[in-house]
TrEMBL record:
It comes from Nocardioides flavus. It is an enzyme of class 2 (transferase). Its EC number is 2.3.1.269. InterPro entries: Apolipo_AcylTrfase, C-N_Hydrolase, C-N_Hydrolase_sf, LNT_N. Pathway: Protein modification; lipoprotein biosynthesis (N-acyl transfer). NCBIfam families: lnt (TIGR00546). Belongs to the CN hydrolase family. Apolipoprotein N-acyltransferase subfamily. It is a multi-pass membrane protein. This is Apolipoprotein N-acyltransferase. Pfam families: CN_hydrolase, LNT_N. Residues 211-465 form the CN hydrolase domain. It is found in: Cell membrane.
Amino acid sequence: MSGAEPGRTAVRPLLALGSGALLAGAYQPVDLPALSIPAVAVFSAVAWSGTWRAGALAGAAFGLGFLGPLLWWLSGSISPGAWLALVAVQAGWFALLGSAIATVRSLPGVAWWTAVLWTAVEVLRSAWPLGGLPWGRLGFSALDTVWQGWLQWGGVTITTFVLALVGAATGRLVVSRGPRAAPLGVAGLVAAASMAPATMAAKQPRTDDNARVAIVQGGVPGAGNRLVDYHREVTDNHARETLALFARRDASGQPAPDFVLWPENATAVDPVTDERANRAIRETARATGVPLLAGSVTDGPGADGARNQGIVWSSSGAPGQRYTKRHLVPFGEYVPWRSLATRFSNRLTEIPRDMVAGTVGAPLDVAGIPVADALCFDVAYDDVIAPQVRRGASLVTVQTSNAMFLGTTQLEQQWDISRVRAIESGRAVVVASVNGVSGAIGPDGKVIARLAIRGTASAVVEVPLARTFTPAVRWGPWPGRAAVALAFVGLAGGAARRLRSTTYDSR
């Protein structure tokens, strides 16, 4: 080992840490998506330059540098301990990625294999442990860039692969041929990858008609982040603002909305069994004369269970179809290993019941419109909206609370993810939040309307209804499955080549 080698070994984790922080800048609040390519380039080059153990160390450093700033909103909204634990667990996935990238560095087409591995690890960390965390997927950073068209054609997964491929190819050219040779080759790859969706003559799904949706953001009294303490006032706020919105509509002579959208936790008690909550929704629906889709916490199964649901109330005030949140927040909506976890955190005793996750079924029928519904963090997962769209949904609604994240960048990050889902699904997305970001997004990802954060507000938005499917919706989960399968092939090939090389050198 040369005298310079220890110095280079020490620098690698620092470079990886810095490239992780660079990637965090591609998302809110910095919001410079162009940073994603150089971030991937630097990290890939670092991971290729050492052993699999050095790659793991670099990957862990990258994960800390990336997810630490990206998820900082957890520190103030939940606890520093929760932020640190989640970042550490997710950094473990990037340690695995760094080790895997180092393993395939001798394979032909190493940039391609690196992109495959990046995509596969992203798919896996979005599913495990405890339901996974898709926050910070590379494909989310394509919003408002030349790469955005890939979201419609290949979804977030293939968009991640394209960005990782361009980034890894950039790093490979710089490492193998020097910075003077890199710009021309990279420019060609960037041009090809950015122009590909346009070359395929992408079209937005055909729209047959429009829907008028009344978005109601009730607001939370006090500091705005203690919804449970004021849940009765929150429900009353939504009822009053809905009636006020319809009174303004009557005065202006505007046509009636097709339905009203209330956010997640518009009632924090079961509105079927709780008389006060039931009366608020029932009387509001009857007064407006249109259906109401309201987010509610409902009882069961059993005395210790609960569900987070979107419930369709008819214009006569009767509850109907329901969507149950599929992806629950561990230590927020349920407590894993409750008997052990509550010994370390008294705050967890504030969660007396564990919520039960739902499954994705047929779209909700709201005023004759097939609606794909998602509740809060559901929107970040691939298996919520697209399956409902494949079953006929022509519009997407996102019901979210976000009160506990008030004043953090989580609000804008989730709003951007909702915009990504609009492009991917080819559907307009209407978002109702208690006091976060409420508004409407077109199928092209452009903002149609946006309400002010924090206060009580409402608006009627007109959005297109789409009938046909984007290629991304048709692909479904298969790109992710293919990436995982190919990742194992690449790792096996890289390990075999390294073994043959070691055997040859020992002769």
